[in-house]
Amino acid sequence: MKNLAKRKIRPCLKKCIILSIYIITSLLVNGQQISCVIYTNLTREDNLKSYLVYNDSVAMSIFGFDLNQKIVISIAEGKNAPVHKSYFSKKYNSFCYWKQNKRKSKSVILLDTTKNYKWILIDTFKTIMNYNCKLAYHVSSKQDTLVAWYTTEILHGYGFYEFNGLPGLVLESISQVMNWHLVATKIEKIDGQIYFPTNLKVYYY
Predict the structure, then answer these.
(1) What's the N-to-C CA distance of the chain in angstroms?
(2) What pLDDT, in 10s, does the model give residues 133-164?
(3) Where does residue 181 fall: left (phi above 0), alpha (psi -120 to 50 degrees), or beta otherwise?
(4) Nearest 5 degrees, angle CA 136-CA 38-CA 148?
(5) To bridge 133 with a disulfide, which of 127, 143, 149, 165 should be the other Cys (CB 3.0-4.6 Å)?
(6) How far apart are CA 34 and CA 189, in angstroms?
(7) Among candidates 128, 138, 190, 183, which has minimal Cα distance to 162?
(8) Alpha carbon of 114 to those of 33, 41, 120, 180: distances in Å?
(9) Gap between the Cα atoms of 60 and 41, Å rounded
(10) How many CA atoms lie less than 13 Å away from 100 in the CB half-sphere?
(11) CB 50 within 8 A of CB 62
């Protein structure tokens, strides 16, 4: 009788353990936090905001107006895409887009390695949002002088759009060709995830 009882308990115990692992994993995934940097474009009068959401592996740049936190999370998680967005992936170490291939009706990842810039770092300093920042610049193939102010107090080398690959987070960026002068006004932690597929076909351009 004891052996029979043990046999009945073991499968039940296994199910409980599996269920517990599933619940814990779900909580960890769903409870992820991502960082969001909100920039104001000083060259525009329409209060256009730009958003950079990032985690340890990928950053997403979102062009938009005054988006609320719910919409930003929705865009990051791939549920809503009313505005233009681009990515910087640490896996590919490249600026990239996730796009639909119209011919084959399949999604693909497009890597733009022309935006893997070799930044020139300058020993010039200023403070943005109480962060100590350093200056960097790059002259692009379009003869655009890109200017970035980054902080090593936040070590993720992300910045809005093509301003990536620096020793810290970019809090201010200037592009003459794109006609923007973005300055970070807020950095916050939000509950959500960044959906970026890693199993798609990759194309370079």
Answers:
(1) 70
(2) 999 999 987 788 999 999 999 989 999 999 99
(3) beta
(4) 5
(5) 149
(6) 6
(7) 138
(8) 31, 24, 16, 20
(9) 17
(10) 2
(11) yes
- For the residues of 118-162, what is the DSSP string, one character each? -PEEEEEEEEETTEEEEEEEEE-TTS-EEEEEEETTS-----STT
List pLDDT tens digits, range 29-39: 334 788 999 99
Residue 187 contacts residue 37 (beta carbons within 8 Å)? yes
Rounded Cα distance between 57 and 183, Å, is 23
Report residue 164 as tokens.
């990536």
Distance in angstroms (rounded) separating the CA atoms of residues 147 and 173: 6
Residue among 152, 184, 177, 153 at smallest CA distance from 166: 152
Stretch (H or E) spanning 33? strand 33-41
